[in-house]
Amino acid sequence: MNEFIVTVNNKKKLVKILEENKVDIDGKVIQTSLQKISNNLISFLFGNKVYEIAINKNENEKTRFLIDGWYIDSVARTKIEETAFELQRNIEKQKHHSEIKAPMPGLILKIKKKVGEKVEIGEPVLILEAMKMENEIHSPATGIVKTINFKEGDSVEKNSIIMVIE
Fold first, then answer.
1. How many angstroms separate the Cα of 74 from the Cα of each of 6, 8, 55, 69, 114?
2. 111 and 73 belong to one structural domain
3. Positive or negative CA dihedral for 153, 155, 158, 160?
4. Rounded to an integer, what distance in angstroms lies between the CA atom of residue 19 and that of residue 105?
5. Could you give the CA distance from residue 67 to residue 69 in angstroms, rounded to a whole number?
6. Quick one: which of 2, 49, 84, 120 could link to 17 by a disulfide (CB 3.0–4.6 Å)?
7. Each residue of 86-104: pLDDT tens digit?
């Protein structure tokens, strides 16, 4: 028996191929049959309905189906592949952060956010005075302020990491 995690329009389903013409989708057993019409076109019996499906395989994992005038994007992975994908995605989420660095040496006049506050991309987060001019520094990402390494009144060197957003 082959088992797959199939993601269709961002919804995951457990699909087990029980026999040649039977599948189990999240505990529901359904009769199926495939007939190849051409390289990219199949006739698919699913339960008691017949669908003509055009298939477009992308260069990545996704496959796009055209069914009754609707495009459906899907990804099919084995359980092991899905587990590995989720682990990798969680690692990427944990690593993702944006640093706000001083673009020039200067003095921090005002910090507009506190640790734990939400910040939107492009939102002003601090004012840095350099060469007697006030420079408003904007967030490069949307996220939560994780660390602030300086306080108001501190001098910073160019490229000093002032704030981290995750």
1. 7, 5, 11, 16, 41
2. no
3. negative
4. 69
5. 5
6. 2
7. 888 777 665 567 899 999 9
